[in-house]
Amino acid sequence: MKYLFFYLFILCGCNSAIGDSGADSDLFVGIVDQVIPAIANISSVSTVERPLLIPFPFDELFYGKPKPMIKISSLGSALLIDSSGLMITNYHVVGEMSDVKIVFTDSPDEKPVQGKVIGKDQELDIALISIDLKKKITPVVFGNSDTVRVGEFVLAVGNPFGQGHSVSHGILSAKGRALPGGPFGGFLQTDAPINPGNSGGPLLNMKGEVIGINTAIQFNAQGISFAIPINSIKEILPQLKEKGRVDRAYLGVVIENLSPGVAAHLKANQESRAAVITTVYDNSPAHKSGLKPYDVVISINNVPIYGSNQMMATLYSSKIGEQLDFSILREGKEKKIKVILDKKTSEEKLAMQKQEKEMILVDPKSGVRIEKFPDGKGFLVTGVITGGPAERSGIMLGDVLVEIDQKPIRSLEQYRSFMIQSPKHLIRLMRTRMGKETFTIIELDLT
């Protein structure tokens, strides 16, 4: 009984303390008032050539010249970084778009400002936009993403689902995270609710400083979102302003974490936390220096490598022409290899673009733009054609198409073959709303 009394006493005491402290209720208000004016909503449109679901040599006979064009729309957020009208957002929000409109308020009376994309870095997923600023707005202030600590309160600001300015809060959950298949291993992870449309918006610390740019959500999990550290963006901004692109040091490998099973086969310590090379591209600096698949990377410049995330972060911070001293294990024996990093060639960029085309499809028949989902279990909807069958059926940005007609979608080829079999399809899709993952079944009518 005394334990029950003690528990009730604590509850009463806590409630009283909260009730007496008015400061807790407006903890974030000052930050929001300070930052919101510099955060904009982006709506962008691009007109693209309408592709056929199945390549056909006589398409011009049916469609004539030129081929029909369709419009793809996208929503996102951006932030003003200086008083001259420079803004940053995600590349995936505006990178492929030709018509970019910016609004700073939710007022229906505000006339959109035309934005011009003047710099792109697809690898880091950052774009630089220039606008003709019609009014005085105080730009955001950059913080230091290196010194921010796990567990700190953070705020996410953006334009989720095109609803207008919205603010959510959480904590910084982790640092130095990587996205599946991504080249960058230094993302900030947060549990602040982030949804499609938040892309390009800021992640803020409790001083109102920008510590990251919101960029991705893990759809198959709850409360896992990612932001690009602002310090990584600071490093590339001069190149984006000057050249409109980023020339980055290139090694030419694919890596992954060393698992105990693989370590045993490679005669490495099964408890070792290291990175293993799985692919070496032809004519790359790695290839020229003698690095090979199955090499276990122990250290770079005498700094131990504790997994693929750390190795990617090390490579990302390196410069073109810099020499890196690798310590590797090959067939159980330690070996030293020197690599001089180079700039990625045009041939390598074309190879990346080819790979992207194999992962992305604009489907005019259903009216969606889809991208391969990182875990391979479906396709993420990144664009919806206004008035198309998908929009009429209720498919939205951020949905993940999981199954068509009760069959899982594993590839674009499967998607194409499913879509031509019938004018009507049963679609099972995954949605993450308010941090919760749900599945929905809808009918997609292509007629």
What is the helix fraction of residues, given as a range? Answer: 10-25%
Mean pLDDT metric:
80
The domain count comes to: 4
Provide the β-strand percentage band. 35-45%
- How far do the termini sit from each other? 70 Å
Indicate the radius of gyration in whole angstroms. Answer: 24 Å
Number of H/I helices: 11
Poorly predicted ranges:
1-21, 51-64
- The top-level CATH class of the largest domain is Mainly Beta
At the third CATH level, what is the topology name of the largest domain?
Thrombin, subunit H
Total beta-strand segments: 27
Shape: globular
Major β-sheet profile: 7 strands, antiparallel
Describe the structure.
There is one protein chain. The strands form five sheets. Strands 21, 22, 23, 24, 25, 26 and 27 form a seven-stranded antiparallel sheet that branches. Strands 1-2-3-6-5-4 form a six-stranded antiparallel barrel. It has helices spanning 2-20, 29-35, 59-63, 91-94, 230-243, 260-265, 285-289, 308-316, 346-359, 389-393, 412-419, and strands spanning 39-49, 69-80, 86-89, 99-103, 113-121, 126-131, 153-158, 166-177, 187-190, 202-204, 210-217, 225-229, 249-250, 253-257, 275-280, 296-300, 303-304, 323-330, 333-340, 342-343, 360-363, 368-372, 379-384, 400-404, 407-408, 424-433, 436-445. The chain folds into four domains: 2-27; 28-242, Beta Barrel (Thrombin, subunit H), CATH 2.40.10.120; 249-343, PDZ domain (Pdz3 Domain, Roll), CATH 2.30.42; 357-445, Pdz3 Domain. Helices cover 21% and strands 37% of the residues. The chain is globular, with a radius of gyration of 24 Å. It is built from eleven helices and 27 strands. It is of the alpha+beta class and 447 residues long. Residues 1-21 and 51-64 have low confidence and may be disordered.
